[in-house]
């Protein structure tokens, strides 16, 4: 299972029709709610579908592959 939190910015396999490919995670649970950072449209996606489509996650000021992103040490 992948690690991500509310407010994380991710990129998906395919971009949004508005031309943007950056999404903010607004809600998580059985379904994931994402907000397009270009046009601010909200979409719902099943967790399994989201985990198949997500490609990169923003860490600081750069994007890293989701497979290299790990839970921060507490």
TrEMBL record:
UniProt xrefs under InterPro entries: DUF951
Q: Which Pfam families match?
A: DUF951
Task: Indicate what this protein is called per its UniProt record.
Answer: DUF951 domain-containing protein
């Amino acid at each position: 299972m992948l690690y991500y939190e509310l407010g994380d910015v991710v990129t998906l396999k395919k971009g949004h029709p508005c031309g943007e490919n950056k999404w903010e995670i607004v809600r998580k649970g059985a379904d994931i709610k994402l907000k397009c950072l270009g046009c601010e449209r909200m979409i719902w996606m099943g967790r399994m579908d989201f985990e198949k489509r997500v490609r990169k996650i923003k860490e600081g000021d750069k994007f890293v592959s989701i497979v290299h992103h790990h839970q921060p040490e507490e």
